[in-house]
Amino acid sequence: MGIHRRDLLIGSTLAAVSSACAARQDAVLATAPGPSAATKALDDVLARAIAAARRAGASYADARVVRRQWETLATREDHVTAVNYDESYGVGVRVLASGAWGFAATSRADGPSAEDAALRAVSAAKANARANDRPFELAPNQVVTDTWRSKVERDPFAVPIEEKAAFLLSLWGEAKGVAGVKFAESWVQSLAEWKIFASSEGSRIEQAITRIGPSFQATAVDPATGEFEQVSDRVAPCQAGWEYVLASPLKANARHIAESAVAKLKAPPVTPGKRDLILAPSHLWLTIHESIGHATELDRALGWEANFAGTSYATPDKLNKLRIGSPIVNVYADKTTPGMLGTCGYDDEGVKTQRWDLIKDGLFVGYQTTRDQAALIGEKASRGTLYAQDYKSVPFQRMPNVSLAPGQKETTLDDIVGATDDGIYVVGNGSWSIDHQRYNFQFGSQMAYEVKKGKLSGPVRRFAYQSNSIAFWSSCDMLGGPSTWAMGGSLNDGKGEPIQANAMSHGCPVARFKAVNVLDMKKGAAS
């Protein structure tokens, strides 16, 4: 259930919204146990589901109790436009029977309902086995009993709506004095997951994760022509609570973002042609996500998954053979770095999380895998990347945090700009598109600035660039040092059918790419 309001004025109306949301949350909390109520009763529910699955013929079974909360609060100028809250709670049961997978779920966290879900999952597995030409086998895994929680100081779901709205509305106060700025929007998304996992092998794992991400966007309008430009300040979402929003530079940057929108509107169009690109981490994280993150998902490389921009150019025959980048390009996957969105103690089949290489010195050396995939590429254990959005979603391979390592020298942005004769400095994400092999792509930006003879100059508008994954990463010739490394990421990366959302971060330094094809988005590339 969501609560939606448009043109909602501050003051007494905000109090009404807060009261409505609180009533909704109280009603759900009364029926859905959270971390403080993870009692022996829920362990018994999971045990009954696993036992029922084994009696029905499952060679392996796992079960998860999952509670998921999601909230978005949005404002425009001086009023609240939306308060959306949703929650799910229930039990999901996954089984391996006759060499095939089966899954079923129930929104009732009691023994009989969980047993029924287990029987339905086994029935589905046996039906799937009739069409399965290769029985699934699980890589070995350690039996674990553990608890893991992300760090949070102020639970965003416990912070009053009035307080959160007041912060977002204050951003307009910082931006509205900038001549030419007509509109501004701000929003904050909060996500919380709590789950208990149990397996027929004997593992029992409890995890709690809280994630949050705020944003602000200003729009400048030319009254004479009606043209407009928008610039967003997207604070990197991370695992944290409301304290992260308050400590962010969002409010301090609000006026600058408004001024940037005006400057972008007045800027000349970019000149198409081959240009060196200096990409800030606020832009480069998404290029990593699309061209390397999704490309190294093993299910895409095998052709098992083709939804949301297809399969992968990085097929298994190219592992340890294909050079994706220049020798300074080192990309690693991990689910262990504190604060990053994909970090957790264990994945959704109880595999302890880790860090490993995907690209080493430019060479493609690794995939993201699950327990039933590891043997397909000659590995003996899963990399721990199985994940399900909620209790009623089928767990499958999802992207971990995928990051570009910084250079070993402490090279700064100024150093890279100073070494560039004719280039463009690119900040923030704009439009993007990539083909069905994760190969050919086009990316835009929030802001783009000319670099001439080692000096940063004014902005240009309508900027985008085109390349392919191998040519692009092979053209990387300068990397910023550790001090330039910063995090970006997504709270809602879509994959699968039915679609599931996953959260992951991508860290990277500032980086330079030589002779990339730049285009004017209105006119196209140079002839």
The averaged pLDDT comes out at: 92
Q: What is the CATH architecture annotation of the largest domain?
A: 2-Layer Sandwich
Radius of gyration (CA) equals 24 Å
Find the CATH topology of the largest domain: PmbA/TldD fold
| Whole-number total of structural domains | 2
Number of strands: 25
* Percentage beta strand: 35-45%
**Uncertain segments:** 1-36
- Summarize the amount of helix as a percent range: 10-25%
Major sheet details: 9 strands, mixed
Q: Gap between N and C termini, in Å?
A: 53 Å
Q: What is the H level of CATH, i.e. the homologous superfamily of the largest domain?
A: PmbA/TldD superfamily
CATH classification class of the largest domain: Alpha Beta
**What's the helix count?**
10
List keywords for this structure.
527 residues; alpha+beta; PmbA/TldD fold; 9-stranded mixed β-sheet; 5-stranded mixed beta barrel; 23% helix; 38% strand; globular; disordered N terminus
Summarize the structure.
The chain has 527 residues and is α+β, with helices and mostly antiparallel strands.
Characterization of this structure:
The protein has 527 residues and is α+β, with helices and mostly antiparallel strands. It is built from 10 helices and 25 strands. The protein has 2 domains: 3-266, PmbA/TldD superfamily (PmbA/TldD fold), CATH 3.30.2290.10; 273-525, no CATH class. The protein has helices spanning 12-29, 40-55, 111-129, 161-175, 242-247, 250-266, 281-293, 298-301, 413-418, 469-474; strands at residues 3-9, 60-76, 79-97, 100-106, 145-149, 181-199, 204-221, 228-234, 238-239, 273-279, 331-334, 355-360, 363-364, 386-387, 396-397, 401-404, 422-434, 440-452, 455-460, 463-468, 476-479, 486-495, 500-508, 511-520, 524-525. β6 and β7 form a beta hairpin. α2 packs parallel to α3 (111-129). It starts with a strand and ends with a strand.
